[in-house]
UniProtKB/TrEMBL annotation:
Gene3D superfamilies: Globins (1.10.490.10)
Keyword Ribosomal protein applies: no
Pfam families: Bac_globin
Keywords: Heme, Iron, Metal-binding, Transport
Protein name, as recorded: Group II truncated hemoglobin
C-alpha cells in the first residue's frame, strides 16, 4: 500500500544485498591503484564484515555496528588522520556506484538517488573528519538514511 514505505534495507534485498555490495566495492578498491595508499595490502575480512554491519544499520536493518562494533565513535576513529583527498573521495563514491551495479542492487532511480545521496554525504563527512586537526562531531548515533524526496512510486 502507498502509505507503507519500505526501508531502503528491505527494498535493496536485505542483509545479503549489502554483503554483495560491500564485497563488490572492496574487490574494486583492491584492483584500483588510487587506493594503494589507504588500503596497503588490500582490505581485510574483518574490515569488510564491519563495514557491512555499518551499511545494514544505516539503511534500516539491525543495529549490529552500534551494539557490537563501537558505533559512530569507532567509525570516526577509523577515519581520523587519513587525510583523504578530494580525488580519493570521488573515486570512492564512483566505485560505490559501480559496485551497486555489480551487486545487482535495485536500479530504480528512486533507490539509486537515495543510495548515492548517502554515499555523497558519508564520503564528504569522511573527507572532513580525516583532515589533520579537523573540527569533528565526537559522538553521534549511527545515521538512519531514508528515501528523501523520492520514495518508491506505489500507486
Ligand atoms: C559513505 C562513506 C563511508 C562509510 C560508510 C565508511 C565506513 C567505514 C567504516 C564503518 C569503517 C570502520 C570499519 C571497522 O569498524 O573496522 C571505515 C574504515 C575506513 N575507511 Fe571508511 N567509510 C566511508 C568513506 C570513506 C572514504 C571516502 C575513504 C577514503 C577514500 C575511507 C577509507 C577508510 C579506511 C582507509 C578505513 C580503515 C582505517 C583503518 O584501518 O583504521 N572511507 N570506513
Amino acid at each position: 500500500m502507498a502509505d507503507e514505505v519500505p526501508s531502503l534495507h528491505a527494498w535493496a534485498g536485505g542483509d545479503d544485498a549489502f554483503r554483495r555490495l560491500i564485497e563488490a566495492f572492496y574487490d574494486r578498491v583492491e584492483q584500483d591503484h588510487r587506493f594503494d595508499r589507504l588500503f596497503p595490502g588490500g582490505v581485510s575480512r574483518d574490515h569488510r564484515d564491519h563495514v557491512v554491519r555499518w551499511w545494514i544499520e544505516v539503511f534500516g536493518g539491525a543495529d549490529g555496528y552500534t551494539r557490537n562494533l563501537g558505533g559512530y565513535p569507532a567509525m570516526l576513529a577509523h577515519h581520523r588522520g587519513l587525510q583523504i583527498t578530494a580525488e580519493e573521495r570521488l573515486a570512492f563514491a564512483t566505485l560505490m556506484s559501480l559496485a551497486a551495479d555489480d551487486a545487482g542492487l535495485p536500479a530504480d532511480p528512486e533507490f539509486r538517488a537515495a543510495f548515492m545521496g548517502y554515499v555523497e554525504w558519508g564520503t564528504r563527512l569522511a573527507l572532513h573528519n580525516s583532515a589533520i586537526d579537523a573540527d569533528v562531531v565526537e559522538d553521534a548515533p549511527v545515521p538512519h538514511w531514508g528515501w528523501g524526496v523520492a520514495p518508491p512510486y506505489q500507486p
